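Troubleshooting: if your tokenizer reports a length mismatch, compare your output against this known-good record of 163 residues.
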Amino acid sequence: MKLSALAAAAIFSAAFALPASAAPAAPETFPGAPGVITLSGKCAKLVVAKFDATKGCKNELASVTLVNGLVTFIFTSDGKALGFQGDGGGIKPASNGNARLPLSLVTTGVGNKMTGEVKVAGFCTFGNPYAGKPIAIECTAESKDSSFTGSFRTGGKLVKKGK
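Known-good structure output:
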């Protein structure tokens, strides 16, 4: 299943239907207005606690922005999904022209359904893929029982946008 379909399913399973007019015509910021953006590149790392899922990690990453401002970066590996989620209103500038999203949840799922949630503390640091150069998206989070790490690097190509 394509990652963009998985990300779209995550939006609808959360009961946030997006009207066609909600997708921006040519966004210049990232993660941007409500919708789904799929980035291609290389999944450099995906680890949950002591389980390393990097080998099966897909070379696509979805960024889902909901109408309520929540932003989720979704990594997939061997049919399973791991989403790093936080309030987009909390995004702050970070070093080297990057931005930082504070995280509150890690979501999990299988196939096209995101069904699990774990409260976490952590951050995703990311660049802007619309700048036309390679960027990194690096997420780290910890719950009271586990740790989560995801790292993705784009090749600098434009992203695919969905509704």
